[in-house]
Amino acid sequence: MGITVAQLREQVRGAVIDRDDPGFDQARRVYNAMIDRRPQVVVQCRNAGDVAAAVGYARDNGLDLAVRGGGHSVPGFGTCDDGVVIDLAPMRGVRVVPGSRTAQAEGGATWGDVDAATHAFGLATTGGIISSTGVGGLTLGGGIGHLARGQGLTCDNLISADVVTAGGELVVADEHRHADLFWALRGGGGNFGVVTSFEFRLTPVRDIYGGLIFFELDQIPNVLRAYREIIADAPERLSMFPAFQIAPPLPFIPQDRHGDALIAIVACWAGPIDAGPDAVRPLRDIAPIVAEHLGPMPYPLLNGTFDVLVPPGLQHYWKANFVVELTDEMIAAHVEHGPRVPVVNSTVHIYPINGACHRVAPDATAFAYRDANFATVIAGMWPDPADNAANIAWVRDYYAATAPHSEEGGYVNFMAGDDQGRIKANYRGNYDRMVQVKRAYDPENLFHLNQNVRP
After folding, report:
1. What CA–CA distance (Å, rounded) separates 200 from 207?
2. Measured in whole angstroms, how far is the alpha carbon of residue 202 from the centre of its chain?
């Protein structure tokens, strides 16, 4: 039998919040309002020692253990009923070393934290599309973002990680120390421990040229075919992805089109700013434009562009596919289901993951789909729980229509709680090696609240 909650409070510097504390309901709340769970205790960790103590408390008392970084886990893996939540939110520090072009981010940092710190030095690494996304979750699941074609996935830019293991030991994992663990962390999710600090490689990026272009729905085939052709051999500093989106009330969109479903292209040119207009010109020639907002902007501004559409407290249900070829059959599925995007918060993105992502061998990291050219994410997000059944059905129907034209596995960061059956497919030939690493570092599967690799 392990220690008591009172004894745990004496061991940690951060707050230990149980059901009798007035802040409990706030402490247990997560990003997805569809998830309503009541842990026994939430440990708001302030350092790696706090994390180790919380891990030991859960392990020795036989309790479920959830780990929360940014809190965006749509399946609710950052919380649990009757167990322990390790909340890393107080650990948000970011330290940039300009001379070595590296940054260290604590486990509770968000991409907004990283972007703000690195941008001051004209540096960046591949981050997410929403600035409130946690650094930990995105990195451990692979990490797709605006800079991926030129810099690789987020996990490809990971240099080292400080990890608290299931045994409560703090280890440093990199290419030379605990190299098997380092391999598994890069795409394997939260299966192997609690990462309290990430060290990233940075690249010079300060301002980018980019933004959004909206087209009519009847142009979907033209937009997607043009995207397929342009992105195949575009300069790697150019990223773009199509998005199905209900037009929000933005000043550059004609007022009479607010609320209309459209197809957009989100563009990011990370090369010389004066070359930006020429770099994005092929996108402007695809079809007649409904509205556009393109120009120079700080890179962090683009990374926060969609934040206002996805505040905490929405209902969430997501699905994801990897795609080698954006075939005409796949495009037909998008033509059928994309225009049915239910509310302004929901969207479908088709991210490009070629370029630098392809220069990493499929067995070099746990992230296995190095031949895929696209990652389709169907992100159902809406405010009213009364719409849950209808909007979940939209996501599932969309996924069912695209799955026959996709790979068997998908991007774990956009998978739902009912996707556990796809785990082996997500990791292809890397799965057996992941099981071996799991057995070495977490033989009792303490870290099982994730897209779980069983030991």
Report:
1. 20
2. 18
pLDDT at 118: 98
- What is the rounded distance in angstroms from the CA atom of residue 261 to the CA atom of residue 410? 26
- Could you count the other beta carbons within 10 Å of the beta carbon of residue 290? 19
**DSSP of 345-380:** T-EEEEEE--GGGGGS-TTTSS---TT--EEEEEEE
Q: Establish how many alpha carbons lie within 13 A of residue 282's alpha carbon, considering only the half-sphere containing its beta carbon.
A: 18
Strands (DSSP E) found in 232-305: 238-246, 261-269, 289-298
pTM as predicted = 0.96
Q: What is the pLDDT of residues 398-409, one digit of tens each?
A: 999 999 999 999
Tokens 């719409």 correspond to what residue?
A: 387
Q: Tokens 């080292």 map to which residue?
A: 160
Average pLDDT of the residues of the chain: 96
Residue 20 predicted with pLDDT over 90: yes
Contact criterion met (CB below 8 Å) for 152 and 356: yes
**Residue recorded with tokens 């570092």:** 441
Among candidate residues 95, 59, 80, the one with its CA nearest the CA of residue 444: 59
| Residue closest to 413 by CA, chosen among 377, 381, 452, 455 | 377
Query: At residue 112, what is the residue type?
Result: G
Binning pLDDT at 50, 70 and 90, where does residue 378 land? very high
Structure tokens that stand for 425 in this block: 């497919």
Q: Is the CB of residue 110 less than 8 Å from the CB of residue 133?
A: yes
Name the residue among 289, 125, 256 with its Cα closest to residue 203: 125
Element (H, E) at 204: strand 203-204
What does the pLDDT average to over 340-365? 98
Question: What phi and psi, each to the nearest 5 degrees, are found at residue 319?
Answer: -140, 160
Radius of gyration from C-alpha coordinates of the chain: 21
User: What phi, psi does 362 have (nearest 5°)?
Assistant: -65, -20
d(CA 272, CA 205): 10
Spatial separation of the C-alpha atoms in residues 54 and 167, rounded to whole Å = 11
Looking at residues 412-431, what average pLDDT do you find? 93
| 8 within 8 A of 85, measured Cβ to Cβ | no
**SS3 category, 258:** coil
Q: What is the DSSP letter of 340?
A: G
Q: How far is CA 14 from the centre of its chain?
A: 26
Q: Residues with Cβ < 8 Å from 393, sequence gap 6 or more?
A: none
pLDDT at 1 over 80: no
Q: Is the predicted pLDDT of residue 285 greater than 80, yes or no?
A: yes
